[in-house]
Design a protein that fits this description.
8-stranded parallel beta sheet, two-stranded antiparallel ribbon, alpha/beta, about 280 residues, oxidoreductase activity, acting on the CH-OH group of donors, NAD or NADP as acceptor, TIM Barrel, 11 helices
Length: about 280
């Protein structure tokens, strides 16, 4: 496993396992146990996923020392604000059966996320959070948060894949020392990622799948990735990306796949904002 060093010195695996959309508790617990067994040490969940308890049970059962695991969760919009956020973080720790989190993120830049961040800063200073950051923060809101808070976010988790590579946003993150992390590294299969001819041609050179090439491209670009699969054999394939390196010409070919726009939603779209903020009620 390779690691990135966050702006506070914490080391974070560059590849982890995400549990988005694994709502069934037994399946989620099984998946996390499988992921840890095959070598994943970063596990990414969220309050909104409804599976923190399942992740917690898997952590307890896995037999891996706590200090070898890197556990991330996220504060949802409905828990925004200082008091609600602080309580919800304690509840997340209880559900996960943990004394501390390796990384806590604000899930969406809506509601009183300034109050949320103040609560996170306090718990960070107390040692209950080893690193704090954000998710889905576009450059304008990220800069605003950085300029008016004491602790610079360690991570910004955003939609990042070969079709939306976040080049401009990542330059802003680098400027302020924020690590980019990808959600949706496979674009959830959109744009026929798993059969894309460019990725296939590159993969054939290294005897790797489209999925492995897509992950390797992001990793070589310095992006933390958290692919999800409920199939153990694919978990094994997804983590098997450290035995090859893409040549510059292959990196350039994949760079040309970038469309520079979301395949899912935009926070600049009023309808998207109306929908997401409605979830806070």
């Amino acid at each position: 496993m390779e690691f990135v060093e966050l702006n506070n010195g914490v080391k974070m695996p560059i590849l982890g396992y995400g549990v988005f959309q694994i709502a069934d508790q037994e399946e989620c617990e099984r998946c996390v146990l499988d992921a840890i067994e095959v070598g994943y040490r970063l596990i990414d969940t969220a309050q909104a996923y409804g599976n923190e308890e399942a992740v917690g049970r898997a952590i307890k059962k896995c037999g891996i020392p706590r200090e070898e695991l890197f556990i991330t969760t996220k504060v949802w919009i409905s828990n925004a604000g200082y008091e609600k956020a602080k309580q919800s973080i304690e509840e997340s720790l209880e559900r996960l059966q943990l004394d501390y989190l390796d990384l806590l993120l604000i899930h969406q830049p809506f509601g009183d996320y300034y109050g949320t961040y103040r609560a996170m800063e306090e718990l960070y200073k107390e040692g209950k959070l080893k690193a704090i950051g954000v998710s889905n923060f576009y450059p304008d809101r990220l800069i605003d948060l950085i300029k008016f808070n004491e602790v610079v976010p360690a991570v910004n988790q955003v939609e990042t894949h070969v079709f939306n590579q976040q080049a401009n946003a990542n330059e802003i993150m680098k400027k302020y020392g924020v690590q980019i992390e990808s959600w949706g590294p496979f674009a959830e299969g959109k744009n026929n990622l798993f059969t894309d001819e460019t990725l296939k041609a590159v993969g054939d050179k290294y005897n790797k799948s489209n999925a492995q090439v897509a992950l390797r491209y992001l990793i070589q670009s310095g992006v933390v990735v958290i692919p999800k699969s409920v199939h153990k054999e694919r978990m094994i394939q997804n983590i098997d990306v450290f035995d090859f390196e893409l040549a510059k010409e292959d990196m350039d070919l994949i760079a040309d796949l970038d469309k520079g726009e979301s395949l899912f939603f935009s926070h600049y779209n009023p309808q998207t904002v109306e929908y997401l903020t409605s979830l806070a009620r």
